[in-house]
């Protein structure tokens, strides 16, 4: 039988490790969602208009990957602090579904449309859906604590 | 009127009460605060990363900085508006919170940073980053990361337990209880 003692988790045994992990989580969330939003806003015709969406994808993709790596790592750590609480939380379940959908969407349809030349007629829908999806993910994260 | 009283008055205004007591409005404003950080805070990040040569190296510095400016301001206004709403709802507990105070101090330093570097770095029309751009970018990133971290830490501050009375022993037979 696997026994997991929550109190032995470093995130639960001192005062600063949990908020510090959350800081990494929030900052890297802003990094990955923000760099995706740079591309989305360009597809909607605002922001960095002197660059093409394809150029922006190339200019930001490394930072998006870095953001995803840190946000998922810190997220797993936060999850480990109380797995059952999160597993049973409806906003958390929604968040995980949105994350999976978001990652797949970002690296398939979204990327394809952002890199298409000439610009695809679907770009407004693709960008709007992307922004809505990532915003919904942020909302579901906050609601974990308020449900 | 002391500062603490001003904070108390802010918290007791109708909309601050409504926001604090609503199960729904408070997390919604908090979510908007975070969405604004992600969608618009990245403009600050990209500006500084470009100055450091770490993002979009093929686009001229001045071009990237200039295009991101309105977006940076829009984000700043949104983030601050949500932040003021959130702080107002809990102004009484925010006032003595040291992390909140550090956050305000760092925000003031962002203003100083802007005054110092605005012309030479961010308003500079040159295609390549000016010499002090590296310092300006690193300072800006450090300040904003500090602000973000203090924002998270605000939630973890516990006010020291209130001491209801201090007992002082003045002499062998004199015991005085001083309420505080």
- N-to-C order of helices and strands of chain B: HHHHHHHEE
Q: In the residues of chain A, how many domains can be counted?
A: 1
Percent range for helical residues of chain B?
A: 55-70%
Structurally, how many domains make up the residues of chain B? 1
Helix content range of chain A: over 70%
User: Globular, elongated, flat, extended or rod-shaped: what is the shape of chain A?
Assistant: elongated
Q: Please report the distance between the alpha carbons of the first and last residues of chain B.
A: 20 Å
For the largest beta-sheet of chain A, the strand count, sense and barrel status come to: none
Number of strands of chain B: 2
Task: Give Rg of chain A in angstroms.
Answer: 18 Å
Largest interface: A-B, 38 and 33 residues
Please mark out the parts of chain B with pLDDT under 50 across 5 or more consecutive residues, or reply none. Answer: none
Radius of gyration of chain B: 22 Å
Would you mind describing this structure in some detail?
- The complex is a heterodimer of chains A (147) and B (180).
- Chain A is mostly helical and 147 residues long.
- Chain A has one domain (15-144).
- Chain A has helices at 10-13, 17-43, 53-80, 83-87, 90-115, 123-144.
- In chain A, helix 2 runs antiparallel to helix 3, helix 2 packs antiparallel against helix 6 (123-144) and helix 5 (90-115) runs antiparallel to helix 6 (123-144).
- Chain A is elongated and about 55 Å long.
- The mean pLDDT of chain A is 92.
- By secondary structure, chain B is mainly alpha-helical.
- Chain B has one domain (3-179).
- Chain B has 7 helices and 2 strands, in the order αααααααββ.
- Chain B has helices spanning 3-12, 14-21, 25-51, 61-89, 91-94, 98-122, 133-153, and strands at residues 165-169, 175-179.
- In chain B, strands 1-2 form a two-stranded antiparallel sheet.
- The longest helix of chain B is centred in the middle third of the chain and has 29 residues, at 61-89.
- Chain B starts with a helix and ends with a strand.
- The interface between A and B is large, with 38 and 33 residues.
């Amino acid at each position: 039988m696997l026994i997991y003692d929550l109190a032995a988790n470093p995130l639960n045994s001192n005062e600063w490790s949990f908020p510090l992990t959350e800081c990494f989580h929030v900052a890297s969330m802003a990094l990955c969602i923000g760099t995706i939003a740079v591309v989305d806003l360009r597809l909607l015709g605002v922001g960095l208009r002197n660059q093409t969406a394809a150029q922006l994808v190339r200019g930001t993709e490394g930072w998006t990957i870095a953001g995803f790596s840190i946000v998922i790592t810190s997220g797993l750590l936060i999850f480990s602090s109380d797995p059952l609480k999160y597993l049973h939380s409806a906003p958390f379940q929604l968040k995980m579904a949105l994350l999976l959908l978001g990652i797949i969407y970002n690296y398939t349809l979204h990327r394809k449309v952002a890199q298409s030349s000439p610009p695809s007629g679907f770009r407004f829908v693709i960008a709007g859906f992307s922004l809505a999806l990532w915003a919904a993910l942020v909302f579901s994260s906050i609601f974990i604590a308020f449900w | 009127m002391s500062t603490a009283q001003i904070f108390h008055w802010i918290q007791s205004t109708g909309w601050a009460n409504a926001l604090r007591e609503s199960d729904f409005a408070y997390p919604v404003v908090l979510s908007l605060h975070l969405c604004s950080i992600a969608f618009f805070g990245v403009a600050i990040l990209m500006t500084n990363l470009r100055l450091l040569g770490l993002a979009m190296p093929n686009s001229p510095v001045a071009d990237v900085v200039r295009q991101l400016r309105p977006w940076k301001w829009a984000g700043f206004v949104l983030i601050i508006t949500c932040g003021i709403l959130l702080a107002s709802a809990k102004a009484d507990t925010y006032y003595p919170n040291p992390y909140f105070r550090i956050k305000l101090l760092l925000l003031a330093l962002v203003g100083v940073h802007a005054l110092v570097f605005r012309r030479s770095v961010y308003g500079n029309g040159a295609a390549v980053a000016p010499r002090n751009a590296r310092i300006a970018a690193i300072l800006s990133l450090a300040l904003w990361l500090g602000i973000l971290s203090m924002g998270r830490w605000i939630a973890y501050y516990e006010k020291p337990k209130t001491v209801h009375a201090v007992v002082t022993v003045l002499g062998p037979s004199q015991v005085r209880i001083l309420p505080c």
